[in-house]
Amino acid sequence: MTSMLTYTFKNLPNTSKWALQFFVRPLSCSSQLQAAPATQTKSKKTLAKPNIRNVVVVDGVRIPFLQSGTSYKDLMPHDLARAALSGLLTRTNVPKDVVDYIIFGTVIQEVKTSNVAREAALGAGFSDKTPAHTVTMACISANQAMTTGIGLIASGQCDVIVAGGVELMSDVPIRHSRKMRKMMLELNKAKTLGQRLSLISKFRLNFLSPELPAVAEFSTSETMGHSADRLAAAFAVSRLDQDEYALRSHSLAKKAQDEGLLSDVVPFKVPGRETVTKDNGIRPSSLEQMAKLKPAFIKPYGTVTAANSSFLTDGASAMLIMAEEKALALGYKPKAYLRDFVYVSQDPKDQLLLGPTYATPKVLEKAGLTMNDIDAFEFHEAFSGQILANFKAMDSDWFAQNYMGRKTKVGSPPLEKFNNWGGSLSLGHPFGATGCRLVMAAANRLRKEGGQYGLVAACAAGGQGHAMIVEAYPK
Amino acid sequence: MVASRAIGSLSRATASRMRRCPGYICRSFSGSSALQTRTHINYGVKGDVAVVRINSPNSKVNTLNKELQSEFMEVMNEIWASDQVRSAVLISSKPGCFIAGADINMLASCKTSEEVTQISREGQRTFEKLEKSPKPIVAAISGACLGGGLELAISCQYRIATKDRKTVLGAPEVLLGILPGAGGTQRLPKMVGVPAAFDMMLTGRNIRADRAKKMGLVDQLVDPLGPGLKPAEERTIEYLEEVAVTFAKGLSDKKISIKRDKGLIDKLMSYAMSIPFVRQQIYKKVEEKVRKQTKGLYPAPLKIIDAVKTGIEQGNEAGYLSESQKFGELAMTRESKALMGLYHGQVLCKKNKFGTPQKEAKHLAILGAGLMGAGIAQVSVDKGLRTILKDATLAGLGRGQQQVFKGLNDKVKKKALTSFERDSIFSNLTGQLDYQGFEKADMVIEAVFEDLSLKHRVLKEVEAVIPDHCVFASNTSALPINEIAAVSKRPEKVIGMHYFSPVDKMQLLEIITTDKTSKDTTASAVAVGLKQGKVIIVVKDGPGFYTTRCLAPMMSEVLRILQEGVEPKKLDSLTTSFGFPVGAATLVDEVGVDVAKHVSEDLGKAFGERFGGGSVELLKQMVSRGFLGRKSGKGFYIYQEGVKNKNVNSDMDGILASLKVPPKSEVSSDEDIQYRLVTRFVNEAVMCLQEGILATPTEGDIGAVFGLGFPPCLGGPVFAFRALPLRGSVRCSEGSGPAQEVRGRLRKTVHPVPAAHRSR
Fold this sequence. Notes:
Largest interface: A-B, 25 and 18 residues
Shape of chain B: globular
Order of helices and strands of chain A: HHEEHEHEHEHHHHEEHEHEHEHHHHEE
Oligomer: heterodimer
Main location (chain A): endoplasmic reticulum
CATH class of chain A: Alpha Beta
Shape of chain A: globular
Structural class of chain A: alpha+beta
Enzyme class (chain A): transferase
Helix content of chain A: 25-40%
Pfam family, one (chain B): ECH_1
Organism (chain B): Mustela putorius furo
Distance between the termini of chain B: 90 Å
Number of domains of chain A: 1
Site (Important for hydroxyacyl-coenzyme A dehydrogenase activity) (chain B): 498
Number of strands of chain B: 22
Number of strands of chain A: 12
């Protein structure tokens, strides 16, 4: 009962009026910031660069991430995106007409709303004068949306950007077979009854077998879980290690949820259903329970199971990004700067999920920081095995020298700074939306736990990867 | 006790391979000396699983030789005697090779069939012990698992294979004219069913791991890993071992059953096979097919059928006995020796004896997008060579590009490539009509029309745009390279590369060097050819080089025989039943009558009377009537799209009648005709060797078999010349004894013209 009470209280700022929120936030955050040890010396005081505009995150929200097939299952992707946008409007109270541009990331596209950013923006009540486009880059689609926005601001083209991402795995486009489609299209063109009949006579029953969207890598036809299992084996990551890591993720997520740390979550009243207020995939279990599961991809001896993989998720996120001076002019107190970022790509077969390994040293180098400068790591957790393999790769001189063309390893992130509020394994991973969650988690953690620099990194299908430095906005 | 432990830790420290595995306890039951003397096998224990690693020293492959076998048995006996060990894993430490087969030299050194039979008996006994092992043995297969290697694997209780392209299982003994002699003919049918076993043993085909799993030949697959904390290959083998150890444990703990779930079709099949009548029908069918395909020229397939049949119908004992006896008999046959000779020759012709070229050729340019040009492009791009395909016209270029694409796409249909790999390979090809980018080319191969002045023109054009180091290779089948090189500013960079059509199927590449060709140019051409997957012979320049020159006198004899009134169909059946893959008349049609005419005239001029016999007039008249062979739809036969059985072109009757020559009865029996053809071939091959066109007899054999389809059962012309009682040859050459005289030394003059024509 008490927990329920505290829960509503904690959610109060999210749902209640802007003024109240403004009041609450400085209270809860400033003390934290002051408490943060400023003793640690950084390689750089700030990552601000001369002659380049500072880009800030004013705030970011997400609707609760749900396991696919649950409360969002009857909705369409733009409904989720719309909810995230509405949440952002409520949270930030940003005047709609100052938004210059809207960018959303998504992976599995609903054919009817292929530019889901535009449909959602219109539905969320944004000005029809605000253009919107959709980007796709597998699991780093939202990151791509954000960095596209950064580019537009830094180059002076825009001042205010809304970036976000959405994924609805409860419904995916299942198509007719190519043969069937071809026949239907030709039927469209057929003019006479004779032509139609002759076309129909070519129909065979196998035309009806549907075409499912491939869950496999196009270039290699390998499913991601399979690749993750091979990756874990290549780095000799044991099943137990993977299960332990997954358990950590779920436990930390549970703790963060219970303590109300996941403040980026905004409630979503699902039409015809209850109001969804929290992520539903967090399920701390026991190692014994997890050990009972059979491998999901490489049977019967693989190590990747349902319990140590991220699950199919529905969800959406949105972020308000501005040029610093614009944010200040509008009276905002930004949460963080978005600093240097990199995209990397490598062999999509054997190194499909090693994006963070490649991206981390590169972005640190670019920013002039070291691993020690980072106070909060937020990595996308596709699979336990993937995270642990990345750790091992980052900690290997041999790998750095032979595959990354570097002299030495970058080192693996200290676990106590790593995904402290859970990760994709436990919170869920709506492909197109995760990027914004990572950045907001890093920004919120820096504010809450103290510290200056956060590092966000993620892998993506196609053997690509991304990393970005998030710098806390000074109090 | 302490001592043995000390030895254990010592050997752990010394054997680097073992050091890599944490938790690896090396045990040496018979003391350190035994461990040190073992050179092929090392062995250790993980928990209660013995891991036996095969690694023959100083070799890329493991072969089952006597040494390895005895070490293996020694190790297995220790394992069986040990209380600590409950199961075992067999694995190779060599990436890319489990066991490539038995040591052929072991057979070659045997003098009698009894000796060979004895080897087989020993093998059978060894593998029987494995089969009956009280402790389960898991074969962990990565790389080639062929011949004796396969027989070893199927004697084990369980098989796990890596699912990569290098991992192939097969029983290729038949290709060497022998049979699987270590229980293979007995075990394989039980494991994969009689029809599949016949298919494997009679074709000798390699079976990829995923297919092997479907057939029930292996029980589990392990995916190859990418790089981790060590190189991918190394880690994959380690992983395979880890998985195999888990399964070995599971088997000894009875948690895993070795019984496989059979599908409905398998069940039906095995039910059908339990009916004697069905079995008899299968034997009969297979035998018929084999007889039809081998024309009775190869004894091994029939003996394989026999050995399988004996085992199934009369029980194991009789089966093993029959297998080993037939193995002994086959090893002594001429056919087997011929095939093994070719095998050795092929291995030799896959090496670059000219050393590493100064600059590795990475950028290729091919002139002419015809059948040959596009074919060369196809075998280049799929090995990762950046290739420019240049043609004079857009239509010609398009045709060539389509040919390359189709070649690759056919592989996709056979699942040898993924569509993605196809696309990425195809991106190595640049089609163009100009010389753009030739400044980067390391080698230009011209495959333009066979016309000297045209070749001169392109050579000059190309030399104006290519860099200094670039090799100019001519793909010509008959034009002398020195004549082509005559207009070159840099003749040391000019060489001949004679490919055979269809390029992606024919394994041979004949490289032709002139006196001026530099060694580095040759090395570069051989390196490119090897990269393209070719078997290579390097010959000296001269009219017709080696292959075309050998073919020409035989073709002359073909014309003569046709002039004598032998029907094309009859001639074809005589040649194919002698072991040629294509009938002689069909061959003329396939090569192209105009080409044949061209070559006959040119070489006739160059060599004179020795190339006589048939009348070139025949070809001339055919060309003038437009009977150019398959490409024009008519030659000796009529070719129609979609019609399989071709009919004789009746319009030829008039031409043949006008050029009729009366046959000589003393050399006109079927056998005589066959020998008349083959001896003219052999004669010319030996002449090439004598004149130094060929550097080695081996290259002569390989060139003839792989490029021209010379009967493999004869081992190639030089092999045949040495080994065969060339009765026909002797008779044809009037008993003047070139055969006898030259057989030993190959130096004396070979009598040039076979008798049939001299006495004309």
